[in-house]
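Hi everyone,

Forwarding the result from last night's run.
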Amino acid sequence: MGRDGGLRTTWSAKLKASFAEDPWRWVLAGSAVLALAIYLAGLARAPATMSADEASSAYNAWAIGHYGVDEYGRSFPLYFEAFHDWHSPLYYYLLAPLTWVLPLTAYVVRLPAALCGLGICALATLTAHRLTGSRAVATLTLLTTAMMPWLVMESRFAVDTITQTVCVTAAVYCLVRAERGGGPKWFLAGGCALALAIFGYATGRLEVALLVGGLVLIHLPRPRAAGWWLAPLPAIPAYGLLGLWLIGHPGALTDRFGSISIFGGGASPFEALLRFAGNFFTHFGPVFLLFVGDLNMRQGTGVGGVLMLASVPAIALGVVVCWRRRREALARFALVGILLAPIPADLTREGIPHAPRTATMIPFVLLLGAYGWSELLPILGRRPRAARILAGVALVQAALYFGDLYITYPLRAEKLFDAGVADAVLRAHATSVGHVAVLSRDLDQPYIQALTALRPDPRGTLDTKLAKLGLRQADTGDAFTGAQPGDVVVAPPWNRPPRGTTLLFDEKQTGPWPWSAPVVVANVYRVSAAPAP
């Protein structure tokens, strides 16, 4: 008993001594645990269900993992076609290996996004420590990153945006190491990360060119870091590969931009310039950054901006610090990077402000924050009341934001995430034994929900795959046309069924608030053998 008590006392004394020696070590460890909880908890219910875009990621990744083809039968494509658009490949190839060993659930489909988010947290923390040598600054950077609503949302949606952000964050880390004496190999590593970002998300195709140009510009003044010229080199073969793909697929990656660009609608150069300036100031404005965020609930909850209010003093001070130290390449890189990051989004006129298209601002916001925390910490140490106020603001906003994210946001955003469509399709398929289940295109791409849930062999045409499952798609408004007696039709509630059909069931989802009445999202009908006259 005495020995046990002495042992406990010894360990207790060691822990107390360790904490007294470096309390930030323990705060850093606790922050890492918090980050794991934030990014890995509740992936399957916040958001509530897989949207059509996420289901497309799921089926295509499963098809690549098991058959080496996408949903159109193309072998290991560089870009994935979905809903008449082309998507960058990194997310699909990250998810594909997981489908070998894990079920294709919403949690698993979103897991690569969450892991990328955690990777950004780790890289930002390492960058801050390498930049300042301070464990305290590294810890505050980790907390800033982990609780940033911008990154939290990007890490909970199974689409390709997050892969570009993690690549640019890795490039920032490598370049900080290179500038801090790491040598030419880190410039090359940073360049490789930027080259990979070209294939992370649509904006990366322009973003990387801008950042590479910025790197060249900031290293033109003397003195130049040894080996800096290695950073732009990997982008050359990457753009070469992209160019070869475009030759074989003319217009595939440019048609959509043509329809949403600031030059669309017959805009004059002056009108396009005004649109660009408006977008630019919107993405740097307080409404987007601090108060509301992205207005699309697929990309934000609407509760607060994309940044934590408590991080703003450090970020703002970081801008001032970098301007004062603008003779240093890293300080110039932080300032140039934050200005260049939103430009691809600023060239569009759809969904502004747009958090995913501006997500490459995140690494530079965090870099500026690290500069700012290094200057702000001594000030807060001398003003404990200010430190307590800042901590209180962070706790209140975190409680409001994460409480909403896990409780009310999933209900408010259900419709945008196509809640109930997959359930209706599966129930209709199970009910239509011996007959055809007809899927109305008035629903949001119901065919991809069927493919994801039932996972037919991806080789062959879409109609062939659906026919093997006993399914058929119908054009908008024509779900009942051509249906045979005994067939089952899945239609939205606003599609009026003709005579001779029987309502089998309706698929309901809870309303936007816990006290709301359930909302019908789809009806499933049986076409009668003897329709009413």
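The mean pLDDT is 92.

Cheers,
N.
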